[in-house]
Every structure is written in structure tokens, then in C-alpha cells.
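Section 5.1 Outputs to date
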Amino acid sequence: MPARIQTPYGPLVLRPNRASLADPRGRGPAHLNSYSYDGPKFSPFSAWNTPISARAQVDPMSDEFMRQTVDSDGHGRTLGFQILDRRGFTISFEDPLYSGFSTLFWYADETIPAVSVTQRYDYPNPAGTLTAPWPGSPVRIPNAATSATGSDGQMSVWDMSTRILWEMWRAQKVPPYVTDPTPIPPGTPAGWYAGDLHGWSDFLARPTDPASYYAESIDSGLGYRDYTRPGGTWTTRFGAVGFVAGPQVGAAGGEWHPAGNAYGGSQSGGHIMYAEMLRGDIPHALRYTVLTPMNHHYAQGLGVDGISENIACCCDGDITTSGSPYGAWLMSDTTHQVPMGSRIRIKASVDVAARARNAQNPRAATIIGACLQRYGAYLVDRGGQTSFQAETLSGKNVSWVGLLNKDDPRVFLPQDFEVMSLPPTLGTRAVVAPEWQTV
């Protein structure tokens, strides 16, 4: 019999999961939690897993996006300048030798008890308010689970018993009572706290009735299926519907953001996985961050070429610059700043093998370069570093040491990249209602 869980908008019917979807080797969460997920994420037809078509076109503004000079006010806002200024792309992850912003992946089944996840509104609210449990809580979280140590505190849990991928932002297990930059005060009840909790699944909302849900049994990989936006105006093929809305960012005007990353989609998509590097092939697009994305516009849907996919549904908007070394110029929204959700790639003319020979780890640079030529990378968030992301392996029995170095992508130059076709009209930042978010 299908299982049922209660969401804020009504009951959600879940069909039994097939073990192959979550655990291709059938070893269970104990193995996955000590090693690394070695299976598909998202549908094979997802924008993450689809190679860039030979018919896809480069955006007419690509050269301007990749310009390596500053603007008339002396600030460098283009992606090309940011790559140059940061001495190339880096890899962001956490490991005994490196630290950065990434996501820890954990796995659960019906043997793992569900625990409450309490809302914490400490960003941008410095008071660190703790409130009620998140809609969708409780969540199955392994006892050994930890969140990433960067200030975003990201963590993802794939619940194999319900086929829901839970994603948390600024997550912390208490005790201990320390986090960066805002502490959870001593004496706070033990448990999990998060600034954002989202559940992503392959369950679809009926467009005519957002209070009713249905599920389909499919072999689409880790928690996702294809989804066509109601009305048929565009198809992201990103393959996800989130049924838990948040967080409500009161100090920024009360907006509801559809996910922990600024582009509005899953924080799990696009990571370089340990098993992929071990095999020598990354069969999907990467994710990347840059300091200076567009602030008020984002790229959603097919490009002007009718082929290139853009996957954002929101963007940062005005960001708080109090105490920032960059100043108010960072809130600009010029036509030569790349929008969230847009896709870049390494040009076909670039000799990846020749570039990779100059890397600290030529094998890793070759694998990453080949991926960027075939699949490219999507802009998903703002970050102080221009970087791709790899899964965090802290607490696992494997390590990135000797397999991947944070500086391996630096060998690729700004002029090696191009921006794929953008939609004819960019989306504008607006208040997002706390309802089903399709991405």
C-alpha cells in the first residue's frame, strides 16, 4: 500500500521505493554514510544530466560577460574579470586539507528514526530567533550526520523510505552550541535546527489543485523527475517540486525563497562526487558561484536558440553590504553580469589536455575540463570565490586527498569559457509565495 505523509497543504501519497533508485549496489545507508553515493541524481533527461547540444548557440552577450576589464567606476562585475581576479576557478569542498562551502550527503531508510527540525531565523536576523518545527518535520536523519562547517551549513539527506531528498541550509545539531557566524545559545534544547528545510521529490502537484498531490513510480534516480511547467510555456527538465516553503527572511522584506541557494533550486545538483572522480568521468553539469551575479534578474527556461536550458527561478536581489569590504556597488544589476541559472562551458576549441598538464593534479583537471566542455556549469549562488563545488567528505571513510585539489581548475582561463543562449526575457526578482515551487 502507498504510504501517506501530511504536508502543510494536505496529504502526500508515496509509492514504495525501489532500492535500486537510491542504492544501486544494495548496501544500505550504513555503507553510503561511510562512503559516497554512487548512482544517478535526477532524471536522465534533467538539465543537469543532458550534454550541451551540438545545435546550442552561444549568447550574443557572451564576449561581454567574459570581458576581463573593470567598468567605468573601477569595479569588475563581469564573470571574466572575476575569474581573472580570483586567479581562476577553484573547487569548494571540505576535507582535512581544505575548507569551503559545499554539501554533506547523508542517507536514511525506515530503520533511521525521524527527528524534529526547528526553524532558526538567524540570517539576516542577528537575534538568532528559534521558532516552531519546519513544515515537513520530522525528518529521518542518521545519528552520525553533521552539516558542512561553512557559514551556509548545508546538508542533504536522501530518505530512501519515502523517496524525498531533504535539504537543509544553516543546519546545526545541538549540542554543541557553536556555529558561524551566529551561535545558538547554550541551554537550547538538543536537536536539529535549520534556517531552511526543503523536501524535493518526484511527486507532482496537480496544477489545477495545489492542495492535492499524486506520485508516480519511476526510475529517475535520486529524488527527481521531469516536470513541465503548467501552461507549457517552458520546460526546465530540472525535475523537482519542493513542497516545503521557506525560509521567511523577515529582515530582508519578508520574501519567501524557494531553496537554500540563490537560484531557487536544489543545493544537491551539480556537485563533483567522489565516486565520479574515482571512475574518471563526471556525467553531469557542474554548479558554480561568483561574487557578482545579476541582482534583480535570473535566467529561466529555454534560450533564444530554443535549445539551451536555464534553470533559475529567483535571484539574490538586494544584498546586505553592512560590514562588507565590497560596498554598495555589489548590489548593481548591469547587462554584463551573468544571471542566476545561466550555463557556461569551455569552448570546443580549447585543448583541455594541454591546459591540464599545468595543474597540480593533471588527471583531475582533465576530468573536470572534459565535463565542462560537454556539460558545462550552471550559476547557482553568490560566493566570495569563483568556484565549482564537490561533495564534502568530512566524517566519511574516504577522502579527496590525492584525488582532487582545490586549485585544479585554475588552469582554465577566462577566455576559455562562453555563456550559452539566454531566454529572450529574464525573470525579475519578486516575492515568492509560500506554496509549491517548481524549478
